[in-house]
Amino acid sequence: MATEAYEPKDRRPIASRERRVWQKLSTFLANRHVSPNSISVAGMIAGVLAGILFAATGFAKNDWIQRALWFTAAACIQLRLIGNMLDGMVAIASERASPLGELYNELPDRVSDAAIIIGAGYAVGGLPTLGYIAAGIAILTAYVRAVGKAAGVSNLFLGPMAKQHRMFVLTIVALLMGVLPQQWQPSWGDLHAGFASVGLGFIIIGGLITIQRRLTLIVRQLQTSV
């Protein structure tokens, strides 16, 4: 008896999946037997590299090198997101979706989030303490979603500070720091907090709101299912 292909449920809604360029690329990769799990790992590597590049801005003395680091970090964040999108698309296109693939989809995400956000804490204008707090909150938002799913609730990807929103904030920070003249880059207080600290502050506040919204919906769904 033929077994049915595994179908992942409650996938993160990503509008870009419907774009022809990504559909063609996922089909191309699937036809060449590229492993979806290897794409997940590649996305994680891009995320870790983005975090390293963020932190490296704090050590770069040359203005142009520092700007190059910011731009490259922004590009690596986008590569991380593309990898997060393509791994699932390739898995479905090649009929290789599996529970193991979902594990590969989740764990590298947490590593990437932590690396990027903590790296931003060590970047120019960042504060390490904010980076660690923001990373912890980002991981907690995913944990709340996972606990809700384990309890029988549908996956909740709502924000205002879900993964794509966190990465959007830090991408904007990186682009601003790469483009703006130094005299336009804020530096507040003795710790020289700047755009990176502002971005991390948004992630912390938005993340707390996201956790509260997700918990509220999980409790509500569990209560109505009794």
What can you see in these coordinates?
The chain has 226 residues and is mainly alpha-helical. It has a single domain (16-225), classed as Four Helix Bundle (Hemerythrin (Met), subunit A), CATH 1.20.120. Helices cover 70% and strands 0% of the residues. Helix 2 runs antiparallel to helix 3 (63-93). The longest helix is centred in the middle third of the chain and has 31 residues, at 63-93. The radius of gyration is 19 Å and the shape is globular. The two termini are 37 Å apart.
Care to count the β-strands?
0
In angstroms, what separates the terminal alpha carbons?
A: 37 Å
- This entry's quaternary arrangement is single chain
Average pLDDT confidence is 91
- Number of separate structural domains: 1
Low-confidence stretches: none
Which range best describes the helical content: under 10%, 10-25%, 25-40%, 40-55%, 55-70% or over 70%? Answer: 55-70%
User: So, the CATH homologous superfamily?
Assistant: CDP-alcohol phosphotransferase transmembrane (TM) domain
Give the overall form.
Answer: globular
CATH C-level name: Mainly Alpha
The CATH level-2 architecture is identified as Up-down Bundle
Q: Total number of helical segments?
A: 7
Task: Give a summary of the structure in a few sentences.
The protein is mainly α. The chain has helices spanning 20-31, 36-56, 63-93, 99-121, 128-150, 163-179, 195-225. The protein has one domain: Four Helix Bundle (Hemerythrin (Met), subunit A), CATH 1.20.120.1760.
